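# nightly structure sweep
# worker-07 picked up a monomer target from the shared queue
# config: single-sequence mode, recycle default, output format = structure tokens
# input follows
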Amino acid sequence: MKPFNLEAAKAGETVQTRRGDRARVISFDTKKNCLVMTVLVDEGTADFPNENCFLYDFDGLRRGGCYNTLDDLFMTSAKPCDLANG
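# output follows
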């Protein structure tokens, strides 16, 4: 897997979750400047599109989440994998 790269994401490269869901970083700051990104994650299907909004730390981990979850962000060139095979 190609790790999440903050500078590449800021430059417009696309990202995805470890699960393989497409993700769009829509903000790299908040009014409170608490060092988080706002990310829309496409958790829908072709028949039922659905983007959900989540906060992520600058290292690509979902805010308030645990390490090594299916929600972690990676650069799009990475292939999705399951946690057991990392």
